[in-house]
Structure formats: structure tokens, C-alpha cells
Amino acid sequence: MTVLLHPAIHYRMRNARDAASTRLRTLVALTVLAANRVIAKRRKMPEKPPLPLPPDVEEFLVFLRDERRASPHTLRAYRKDLEQFLEYLSEYQGKTDLYAVERQDIRGFIALQTRLGYSKRTIQRRLSSAKSLFKFLCAEERIRLNPARLVKGPKLSKRLPHVFTQSQIEEVFAKLSMTDDADLIRDRAIVELLYDEGLRISELAGLDIQAVDFTRGEIKVFGKGSKERIVPLGSRASDAVKSY
């Protein structure tokens, strides 16, 4: 028996499908754009060396690089966060000595960041960077008490990621497969490696074709902390890379 739906229901269902398809295309476009930006940055001339920070901070960054095997991206984030913190201490508290920092100074930093309109996640990340620095100074016995230990940042709300259906994902791959455009062939290879193989964008950006073993069906990638890992290469991703 055929069930006839009210025209308004048909309209809402069609709009819902169109909206989901638009979100999916936007997600793929943003993912490809992010990957291409990282790749482009890797190909640029070397950046100018950053301005020096106080010796204690520079030694902390060296510790993160050598002992914690932090990635260049992580080190840049720490450096930027600590630059913000040191600038606050100097301009608002009149302090240039890390050993003189007190708990209320750090709380004042959080309050200022909030007034300036930074997101809770950004503020929490900057607080985490400052906490890590003072934890390092305590471990090195350069300060006796950690002024950041009991300081709490803004409470973050839990966000659930939006999940697309398998059919929506397949729709994107199908559209990327039906083209001879060189850029879209490249985009399909990017999406296949990110989706099917689970590569991070930073891993994809640093991937050389020599690291792809089509015979064995595997990819050698370097992840966080320059750790090497072997990723199985699926047939669909393999075909996409070969086409590119």
C-alpha cells in the first residue's frame, strides 16, 4: 500500500536532506582547505626565528622539545601562550621575574583574558601552558611553591561531534570520483587518506610519496613527537593516491 505524505512533510524532509548534504560538503571542503594550508606552509621559506623569551622559559621549551618530544606546532602554541602571559605580568602587574609570580597574578590573567573576549578553551589552554611552566620550575627546584597549582580555569562545556551517515560519506567520495579535474583528484586522495587511513593533517602534510608502499599496502608516517608508525593502505586510498 502506498502511503501519501502531506506536501509540507515532503518539503521538510527534502530541506533536511539538502542541509545535511551541504554540511557534509562544507566539512570536506574545510578539511581539504586545512590540509592544503598546512602543505603550503611546509613549502614556504623557513620562518624567521622567534624573539627570545626569558632563559627559564626558553629552557622549558627545550625540555618540551627534547624530553617530551613535542611537535613544532605544539612548541609554537606554548611559546605564543607564554608570550601572552609574560606580557600581562609586565604590563598589568609590573613583574618581569617569574619567581615573584603569585596566585592572584595568574587569576588576574584569567580575568583579563575573559574581559578581552577570548573563548573558554583558549583561556584554559593558556592557563595550562602557564601551569606546565611553573610545574617545570618546581621540578627544577627554581621555585619552592607552584603559584598556578590551585588555580582553576573556566569550566568547559562538553560538545558532541556531529556524525555523518555512511551513505553521506559515500556520496562525497562518489562525487569526487566522477571528475578529471586535477585539483579534485588531489582532494579525493587527501580525503581518502584522512578518512580511510585515519591520518592526521600534520602527518598528511609531511607525507612523501616514497613513504607509500603500494606493494606491501602500507604507509610510513611520522606522528606526534616524530614517532614513526605504519598505517595499512586500503585499496580505495591506494587507487586515489595512484590517480593523483
UniProtKB/TrEMBL annotation:
Record has Cell cycle as a keyword: yes
UniProt entry keywords in alphabetical sequence: Cell cycle, Cell division, Chromosome partition, Cytoplasm, DNA integration, DNA recombination, DNA-binding
Localization of this protein: Cytoplasm
Primary residence: cytoplasm
Residue ranges of every copy of the Core-binding (CB) domain listed in the record: 51-138
One example GO MF annotation: DNA binding
Listed GO biological process terms: cell division; chromosome segregation; DNA integration; DNA recombination
PROSITE patterns in the cross-refs: CB (PS51900), TYR_RECOMBINASE (PS51898)
Gene Ontology CC annotations of this record: cytoplasm
Keyword Plastid applies: no
Tyr recombinase domain mapped to chain residues: 159-244
Alphabetized Pfam families for the sequence: Phage_int_SAM_1, Phage_integrase
Classification via InterPro entries: CB (IPR044068), DNA_brk_join_enz (IPR011010), Integrase-like_cat_sf (IPR013762), Integrase_catalytic (IPR002104), Integrase_recombinase_N (IPR010998), Integrase_SAM-like_N (IPR004107), Tyrosine_recombinase_XerCD (IPR050090)
Stretches that traverse the bilayer: none
Protein name: Tyrosine-type recombinase/integrase
